[in-house]
């Protein structure tokens, strides 16, 4: 795989510049920080001042909510916050009800999950804590399985559930959602497990801004304001086609490992979920969080049964390039990644819409998943997966995954006759090969293109 993923690339033709370095996940502690964060100064009127101003009105008013202070908020929040650990790192999560339902980020569980063939579901290991007499949290000795129940990649949220007793706890503490949405200037706090801090690290902060991502980000707005005519219309259309979610910005100092942690208000109620920060170090002044409204939408429909999480070939990096490997004038390979290619998707029969192959249309090609590939491979966070549309019907029906040794893997997901997925492990299968394709011509072309990539 080193030969394939290390293929030299010309400068990427990328997603629109407005998306480059917009955000980085504040996810897993793997020894490489995603960005540095510095806390901005904030000028916020005190509750007392606001109350005196409001008293000038004729109608009687209730006093504003009292900020309860760090100690009280920590005691209310921290026992419900858990460590979510996968095979490739860790993130944060929190219990949202007494039944063991846990909220975290999609990107926290997007790689490294374990799979239970009997339950037909994927799971992470979750670590709980218990408050001690000195007010600090103490890690319990034994982790427990938390099965995956739902993922929402657009909102970057996932739901896990602990459905077995937790050793050391007689009941599961949990947080509740705020009744009202957050407002700019509101006092709040985050709790998480930052790689540069300690477990259950709390940081008081303020809500700095609220809006839609990416449309309301300043660099996006400034590009729109600086353009005119057709250029502005084209940019607006590109933004409209991209996935969007409502977010809040806070002045918290989040780190890798904090992703999936709660943002709580002055009463310890959840108003958002931490997920990332600006992509450029010089701009890392804020932390980004999934808005309460998005969280409520995900929680409105919780499946009854856990699910398998399969690798997603469309979980692409910010840079995308189309290549013509065999020189026939038609692109046959999509490469994507950040600093180097992490995804390779082979269109063996060149049936992807050629209109999308133009550089200005690549963003739309990706957003609408119009690249019709028959073989693909991804490598990220130490995991590798190969994807096959074995019968060339436009749907992936075989995924090879697991630890790569000598070009082979030890596990696979296979579509069943009923349309579900079956997980099998303990195998030894070639990762990349045309042998999995039913069409002999496509199989031969796959092997030829794979060799061309490896030679480069």
Structural descriptors:
single chain, 456 residues, alpha+beta, Thrombin, subunit H, 2 domains, 9-stranded antiparallel sheet, 6-stranded antiparallel β-barrel, 9 helices, 17% helix, globular
Helix proportion of residues, in percent?
10-25%
Give the CA-based shape.
globular
How many strands, what sense, and barrel or not for the largest sheet?
Answer: 9 strands, antiparallel
Q: Provide the CATH topology of the largest domain.
A: Thrombin, subunit H
* Total number of domains: 2
Number of strands: 25
Q: How far do the termini sit from each other?
A: 12 Å
Explain what the structure shows.
There is one protein chain. The chain has two domains: 2-16 and 318-455, no CATH class; 21-305, Thrombin, subunit H. The protein is 17% helix and 31% strand. The chain contains nine helices and 25 strands. The longest helix is centred in the last third of the chain and has 16 residues, at 440-455. The radius of gyration is 24 Å and the shape is globular. The model is unreliable at 1-23 and 27-62 (pLDDT under 50).
């Amino acid at each position: 795989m080193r030969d394939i993923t290390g293929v030299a690339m010309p400068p990427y033709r990328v997603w629109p510049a407005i998306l480059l370095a917009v955000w980085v996940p504040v996810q897993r502690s793997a020894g490489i920080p995603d960005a540095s964060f510095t806390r901005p100064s904030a000028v916020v009127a005190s509750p007392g001042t606001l109350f005196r101003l409001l008293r000038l009105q004729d109608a009687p008013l209730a006093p504003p909510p009292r900020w309860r202070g760090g100690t009280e908020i920590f005691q209310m929040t921290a026992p419900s916050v858990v460590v979510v650990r996968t095979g490739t790192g860790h993130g944060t999560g929190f219990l949202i009800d007494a039944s063991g339902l846990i909220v975290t980020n999609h990107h926290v569980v997007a790689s490294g999950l374990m799979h239970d063939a009997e339950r037909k579901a994927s799971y992470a290991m979750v670590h709980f804590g218990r408050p001690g007499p000195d007010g600090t949290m103490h890690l319990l000795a034994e982790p427990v399985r938390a099965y995956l129940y739902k993922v929402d990649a657009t909102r970057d949220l996932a739901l896990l559930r602990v459905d077995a007793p937790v050793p050391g706890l007689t009941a599961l503490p949990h947080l509740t959602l705020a009744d009202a949405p957050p407002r700019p200037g509101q006092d709040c706090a985050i709790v998480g497990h930052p790689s540069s801090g300690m477990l259950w690290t709390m940081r008081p902060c303020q809500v700095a801004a609220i809006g839609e991502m990416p449309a309301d980000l300043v660099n996006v707005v400034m590009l729109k304001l600086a353009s005119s005519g057709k250029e502005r219309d084209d940019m607006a259309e590109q933004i409209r086609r991209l996935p969007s979610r409502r977010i809040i910005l806070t002045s918290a100092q989040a780190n890798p490992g904090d992703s999936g942690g709660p943002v709580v208000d002055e009463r310890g109620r959840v108003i958002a979920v931490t997920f990332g920060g600006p992509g450029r170090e010089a701009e890392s002044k804020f932390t980004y969080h999934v808005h309460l409204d998005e969280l409520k939408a995900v929680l409105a429909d919780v499946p009854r049964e856990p699910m398998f999480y399969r690798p997603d070939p469309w979980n692409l990096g910010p840079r995308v390039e189309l290549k013509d490997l065999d020189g026939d004038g038609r692109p046959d390979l999509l490469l994507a990644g950040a600093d180097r290619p992490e995804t390779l998707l082979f269109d063996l029969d060149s049936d992807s819409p050629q209109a999308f192959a133009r550089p200005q249309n690549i963003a739309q090609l990706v957003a609408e998943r119009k690249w019709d590939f028959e073989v693909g491979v991804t490598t990220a966070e130490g995991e590798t997966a190969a994807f096959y549309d074995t019968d060339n019907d436009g749907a992936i029906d075989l995924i090879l995954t697991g630890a790569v040794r000598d070009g082979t893997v030890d596990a696979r997901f296979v579509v069943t006759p009923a349309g579900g997925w079956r997980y099998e492990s303990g195998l030894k299968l070639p990762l990349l090969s045309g042998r999995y394709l039913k069409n002999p011509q496509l199989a031969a072309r796959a092997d030829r293109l794979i060799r061309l990539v490896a030679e480069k």
